[in-house]
Amino acid sequence: MKKITVKLLYLWFLLIVFEAPLRFVYFKLGLPSLVYVKDFLLIIIFAYFVIYTLSTLRINKFMLAITAVIIYGIIVGLINQLSPFQVLFGLKIWLSFFVGFIAIYTLDSKEKFFLNLFRIYVPIILAGIFLDLFFELPWSGFEYEAFGHAIEGSRSWTTFGLSRIAGFGRSSFASAILLFCLSALYLTLRSLSSKKEKFSWKIYDNLLLVLSFAGIVITTSKTSILSFFILVLFYVLIKFYTSFKNIFRRITLIFVKLLLGLIFLYGFIPPIVSLISPKAITNYLSSGDILMKAIFLSYIDRVEVAWPNAIQLLSKPYMFVTGRGLGGIGAAQQYFEPGLYNPADNIYIYLLVDFGVVVLTLTILYLLKKILLLKFADKQNIFFYIFCLILFLYGATINVIEAPILMITLGFLSALWSQKNAYSS
């Protein structure tokens, strides 16, 4: 089953990389439901894990805690009379995280797997982006009707007249996230590896990293551009830590913790301010300068509209404590509560609406406690720091839980962190 799992994961990534053209082909063939093949692949891996767990009665504590929260969300959603199908849709969204976690325990060679993902799929993603830059691709802006809903096959949009290039992805930010996540997994594994790589591979990999950043810039995905800069800074800090001793190591570790703390506040404070006085942020960001508008226009919309409206979903006083339940915000609403749909666009808002303030508070305290206490001396803790870096950076402005690539990456990293010597090949 291990070999099958690896092949299924390669196939799943391939379907994600080519998602826009595949949706176009599926529709032309009159088989739009084929888009769910990638979900079926995840279900196969997950089902195997469930059977294995039941047969051995062994489960990772971290995974057990996540599972308990999901079960809680299901119960709360049903009590709050969300449609069972809406709750089930909310459960499906978490599937990629669980599979990412599970996969680490089935891979014989983690390093080889992530190196292959980076070296094979990054060039394909870049080819799509550069093709889209110079040619009009047939699936660009493609929309279709399926299951009674209008669905975007590939989003075609602009920012102040500047096309947002998507390539083979369904959107510009989806392609940018793919490039970032594959680069993050590559850099993390390579920073911990003791293997000596061939010079030719080093040149190839470094070229891919540079081109990945160029590709992200072409997509104009601001969050991914910022995240890539900070990822590289984090990688440099890891190198500093391993190169020096004593006081320099302590200073580096303090700087890493401070950096993660600032990134956490970057995503956590603005939603709170937006609920109290949104103009306190938007008046400061508003500007007649076209560059400033391009950078902050979508952010201002989140502060003034999306986040305050998301809190309004907690229509009964007790919901602030319990949440609405799984599927209570985001994509599930598009199908079952279209009139209430809210994208959340912030991980803390999403968790609050789905699970309530108690679960949100416990999650934050757990993460901050680990950030303060963990050290680089135990190498596998670096996986946790990268996990937090991705969660905090993207979670500030993006619906992380509904981004399959982000979730499977977070699943990989959390499993690598919790599994001793997971980075060894």
Give a brief description.
This protein has 425 residues and is mainly α.
How would the blueprint of this fold be written?
Elements: H1 2-17, H2 19-28, H3 37-56, H4 61-79, H5 84-93, H6 95-104, H7 110-134, E1 143-146, E2 149-152, E3 158-159, E4 162-163, H8 172-192, H9 199-219, H10 222-243, H11 247-276, H12 279-285, H13 290-312, H14 319-322, H15 331-336, H16 347-373, H17 381-395, H18 404-418
Antiparallel strand pairs: 1-2, 3-4
Can you walk me through this structure?
This protein has 425 residues and is mostly helical. The longest helix is centred in the middle third of the chain and has 30 residues, at 247-276. The chain contains 18 helices and four strands. Strand 1 and strand 2 (149-152) form a beta hairpin.
Spans of at least 5 consecutive residues whose pLDDT stays below 50 are: 421-425
Q: Can you count the helices?
A: 18
Radius of gyration: 21 Å
Strand content: under 5%
| Overall helicity | over 70%
Content-based structural category: mainly alpha
Chain-averaged pLDDT = 85
* Total beta strand runs: 4
Secondary-structure element string = HHHHHHHEEEEHHHHHHHHHHH
Q: Looking at the structure, what is the overall shape?
A: globular
Distance between termini?
Answer: 19 Å
Q: What can be said about the biggest beta sheet?
A: 2 strands, antiparallel
The neighbouring-strand order within the major sheet is: 1-2
